[in-house]
Amino acid sequence: IPGRTDNGVKNFFYCKLRKIVRNINRGIEIPVKGTMQCRHLLYMLSYLLQNFVIPLRGAKGKMMEHIKGDKYILDLVSKNTITDQTVKEYMRKIAARSGIPISD
Fold first, then answer.
1. Which helix (H) or strand (E) segment is 47 a member of?
2. From residue 45, how far is each of 3, 4, 23, 83 by CA, in Å?
3. In whole angstroms, what is the distance from residue 54 CA to residue 8 CA?
4. With helix as H, strand as E and coil as C, how does 18-39 read?
5. 74: exposed, middle or buried (Cβ count in 10 Å: 0-12, 13-18, 19+)
6. Exposure class string for 4-18: b at 16+ Cβ within 10 A, else e
7. Cβ(26)–Cβ(79) under 8 Å?
8. Which of 31, 43, 76, 104 has its CA 20 to 30 A from that of 96?
9. How many CA atoms lie less than 13 Å away from 35 in the CB half-sphere?
10. Cα–Cα distance for residue pair 28/25, rounded to 1 Å
11. Does the global pTM surpass 0.90?
């Protein structure tokens, strides 16, 4: 992103990811407009799934030391508030609304 530092981009990304996690945790449908925004949201949900949810699934409530990331997101995922099924269901709903094909 032009004019932003690497740290600024990282902070922006994690801020958006926290908002998504907050909405999923509260059961709020994530509003999206247009195909590009849907693709972006699907990417963010995929990132959440691959980097937080799946690695912590086998931790049985304990934090795994080698997983680094946002503490707020890690706390919700480690408490099983957000599961891989929850994230995948959100991905399916968004893809269905926008007509974007996804694979499981």
1. helix 34-48
2. 26, 23, 12, 12
3. 27
4. HHHHHHHHHCCCCCCCHHHHHH
5. middle
6. eeeeeeeeeeeeebe
7. no
8. 76
9. 3
10. 8
11. no
Across the chain, which has 104 residues, the per-10-residue mean pLDDT values are 81 87 84 83 89 72 57 77 85 84 73
Question: How far apart (Å, rounded) are the C-alpha atoms in residues 30 and 25?
Answer: 11
Structure tokens at 24: 């999923």
What pLDDT is stored for residue 65 in this prediction? 54
- Distance in angstroms (rounded) separating the CA atoms of residues 71 and 40: 22
**If you search the block for the tokens 């996804």, which residue do you land on?**
102
